[in-house]
Fold this protein.
Amino acid sequence: MINTLFADIILPLAVRGRFTYMIPSDIPHTIRPGVRVTVPFGGRNLYSGIVCKIHDIPPDFKNVKSILNVLDSIPVINETQLKLWLWISEYYLCTEGEVMKAALPSEECLNNYKPRFETFIELARDFSDNELNEILDKLKKAPKQQDVLSSLIRLTGYTSGSEKNPVSKLLLLKDSGASVGIIEALTGKGILSSKSLSVTRLTESESYKDPVKELSPAQAVAYHSIKKQLIEKDIVLLHGVTSSGKTEIYIHLIDEQLKKGKQVLYMLPEIALTTQIILRLKKHFGAVTGVYHSRFSDPEKVEIWKRVADEDPLNGYRLILGVRSSLFLPFSSLGLIIVDEEHDGSYKQHDPAPRYHARDSAIMLAALHNAKTILGSASPSIESYNNTINGKYGLTELNERFGLIKLPDIIIANTREAYRKKQMVSHFTPELLHAIDDALGKEEQIILFQNRRGFSPYIECPECGWIPVCFQCAVNMTYHKGIGKLVCHYCGHTSDMPTKCESCHSTGMVTRGFGTEKIEDEIKIVFPDARVARMDQDTTRNKNSFNKIIRSFEERRIDILIGTQMISKGLDFENLTVVGVLNADNLLNYPDFRAHERSFQLMEQVSGRAGRRQKQGKVVIQTSDPANKIVRMVLRHDYVSMFRMQVDERMTFNYPPFCRMVRISIKHKEKALLNYYSDFLGHELKEIFGKRVLGPESPVISQVQLWYIKTILIKIEREKPPAKAKQLIIKAIERLEKEKGASSLRIAIDVDPY
Ligand code: ADP
Ligand code: ZN
Ligand code: ZN
C-alpha cells in the first residue's frame, strides 16, 4: 500500500510556520523540494508557495487541503537556499514567507519569463567564395545592396566552408547605413535570410582578460597572511587603510577560486559602488562576471538568477558583484564571499522584514557552502574587530597605501570660532575655501560631504519660532528648492512652501540649517567658474544616474562634487585631492550608541577618497567642537584607539558586542491604545527578562504616516545561545496578539538593530 504523501510549503505570508498540504496522486512526479506549487489558503485565495519537505506524517488537524498544481519541472531554489531562508527566519524572528518575498524575483516573471528576441540576418545558404564574388559583381547596379552584403561578410568574417554566423539586423543596418527595404530586397532574391534569436537583456562585457596586477610587497604579505589564516579559520578580517589595494587583493583571491571552478560573491553596501568595481572585475574575469541589485527590472533579475544557477562554465555567472539581496541568488558552488566595507550600516535591512544583516547572513551562507568569508574595511565594525581579538576571525592588517602615498592630511576647521570672527563665507570656513581654491587652481578635483539632502532641514518663523511638520509624521519638513516644495523624508509627503506663519501669520519664513542642495547653490556663488554637480538620492533616481555622475567626475567634467554618504565610500578617483566634511557635529551628536563609531567610519571613509594616486590628499573637517575625541582620532587615523574607547563604553553600559539586542516596535493609530498595548508587552517581557528590558519608550521619530510608535529594547546575554530567549520573546508577542483589539497593531521585531 502506498502512503499518502504530504508537503510542507512556504507561503509568501507574514504568518509564522510552514503549511502542510496533501499531495494528490495525480500530481506530477516532478514535485520535490524547491519547486513552486499552487495551493488554496484562507478562504478562496490561491498562493504559490515553495515545497520545502515531502513526508508521510499526517498533520494533527483535519481537512488537510490538497496541492492544486505544480508550477515548475525543476526546482527554482536549491537546498542550500532553503537552509539559508530557514536560518534567517529563525535568527531574525521573521517568517520564511517574508524571506521568500525578499529573495525571489517577481513571481509573475519566474512564471512566465519571456526571453527577448531579436531579428538576425545571415546568408541564405553556404555560398562559395566564387559565388559570392559573382553576386557582389552583379549587385554593382544596386550599390546599396552591395554595401549590405559586403558589411555582412565583413562582420561575420565569412569565407566558404566557415560558419554562417548570423548578425543582428540592427547592427547590420547601422554598419551598412542601409534601410530595412534594402535588406528585404536581398532576402527576396534568396541571398540573405532572417531569423529570430533570443538575446540577453543585460549589457554584455567584452570578454577581454587582463592578467591580475602584481601585488606590492606589503600587499603580498597581506595576501599570504589571509591565505594562511584561512587554513584554520573560516573568516578573516582584512583591515587595510583606504587605498591600500584591498580590491587588488580580493582580485587575486577571486582568480584563485574561479580557477578551482568555484563561484565567488563580492558584496558591496551600495549600488553606487558597483559602477567602478564592476569594470575592474570584468577587465580580469570577463563575461563570467555579473552584477545584481534592486535597480534591475524584473525580467533582468530573472535572467541574472538563471545565469547564476547555470553551471555551464562559459554561459553561467561565476562571479557576482552585488548588494545585500545578492545573498539570495541560486549559487551552487560558492568558494568565497567577500564583504567589502563590512562595517557599513547599509548591510542591515530595516524595513520590511526580513530585517537581516547581510554581512552576518553572508557568513552563514558561506558556512552552508563550506566556503570562506573575507571581511574588508579601513575602519572595521566594533563587532568584527572584537571577533578578531577573541579569536573567532583571523586578522590581516595593511597599513600603507599603494604606491606609498601618505594618508590624507587632516585639517580641523573650527566653525564656532570662524563665526565669531566673522570669517565664514556662507557655510564655508577659511580653511576649506582655501583648500578648494588651491585645488581648483591646480585643476584638481574636490568632494564636499554633507549628510543631509535637500536645501534646508527645516524652515522657521523668525517671529514666533513655528516650524512646519509633516501632517502625518513627527518630523520637520525639509525644504527642497529645486522643486520649490517642503518634503517629508519619512513618508515622502510634499506641501507648498508657506508664505505666512500658520501660528502668528507674520510673513517671511526663513530656511534653517543646510543640505546638499544649498551647498551646491552656495558653492556656485563662491566659485562661479567651477563645474559643480551633486550626488544624492534626489539626483540619482534614474537607473543610470550613478554611472553618469561617476563617469563625468572621472572624465574631469566636474570640478566639485557635493554629496551625501553615497559619495563617502569605495570610490576611486585619480585626480581627487580635496575632501571637505561640512558639518561633523550632526554626525557626532546623533542619539545612538553607535554614533561615535559611525562618525569615525564615515569621516575616515570620506577622507580616504582624497589623494589616492600621485600625491597626498587634504581633508578639511568643519566642526564646532574641535576637541572632540572622535575628531582627534580621525585626525591621527587612529582606528585602534577609537576601538578601545568604544569597547570600554560598551562594556560599561552593556551594549553589543557584549550583549545581543532585540528591538520591538509597536505601532497604533491611537496613542492611548498604543500606550496600553506597549505597556502590556513591556510587562510580559519584564516578567521574563527583568531589568534587561528597556522601555517601552517613544523613539526620536514618534509618529510616521499617522502611526504612533513605541519601542521596547531587550538585551540578551551573549554567553547563552539566543534561540531560547527569542522563543520567549515570540511567546510574549503571541500573548499580546491574543489581546482584544490587538489586530489593529503593527508589530516589528528587529534582531541586532542598527
Ligand atoms: P582599497 O580597496 O584598499 O581602497 P584599491 O584596491 O582601490 O584600494 O587601490 C587603490 C588604487 O591603487 C587603485 O586605483 C588600484 O588600481 C591601485 N592599485 C592598488 N594595488 C595595485 C597594484 N598592486 N598594482 C597596480 N595598481 C594598484
Ligand atoms: Zn510665527
Ligand atoms: Zn511624513
